Every structure is written in C-alpha cells, then in structure tokens.
Structure of Molybdopterin-binding protein:
Amino acid sequence: MSHFRMSEVAALVGVSGDTVRRWVDSGRLAAARDSQGHRLVNGADLAAFMRAGAGDDPARHWSSARNRFRGLVTDVARGDVMARVELQAGPHRLVSLMSREAADELGLEVGSLATAIVKSTSVIVESGTARGGPHA
C-alpha cells in the first residue's frame, strides 16, 4: 500500500504543504506518523479525499470540465487576429490558442494568474523515440 509525505500530498492535490498540514491537524485528512515522526497519508485515504472533492476550492466555478490547471502566464504572443498563451501550472506547461480579443478581454499578460480548463475528446500519445528515429 502506498503512503505519501505531506509534500507529496500537496503536489498531488495542488495545494501548499501548509494547507495539507491544516487538513491533517483539523482531522479532514487522516495521517499517521512513521518511525522518524514524519506524517504519512495512506494512498487509498488520499484517493477517497480527492474523489470527494475535499481539496476543491469552494469558490471555483462548476463545469463539466474536470481538468483545471491554475498557473502563471509565462508568454503571450498576440497577432492581428489570434493569440498564443502559455501557462505554467506546477510541472505542466499548457499552450492555448485563442482570439486576440479574448486574450485582451481576459487581461492575459506575462506574470498574471490564470486557470486553464481542459476538456477534450482527443488523446495525445507520447513516445520515447527521438525525432528522426525509426518512427518519426
């Protein structure tokens, strides 16, 4: 059975380590101490906590899209009609193409906070094969 440290829980849920510690201290999320005194969360307990949406922001907007990435805008390239916006959300780099008008109305600038909401019927497949390899 998997167990996760507070920092790992924070990374998985997308919150700070302090938030996870507050959840544990308040009893919202169960944790036990290992032989070194570190708090660990049981993987099954964490999965149930996340499924229940216990870590969700109550102020969030509800939609059918379940993949939400809050991050920092790292680049905005505006053309005459379209804009390409890059967002860094933790280890995830997301790129969105939108109308220039939408980017302007949203006030998207390098350094601003934004949330990318992803809902797709497409599945992208990665390969360990380098460019120019046998399957390029």
Notes: Strands lie at 3-5, 32-33, 39-42, 67-78, 82-89, 92-99, 113-118.
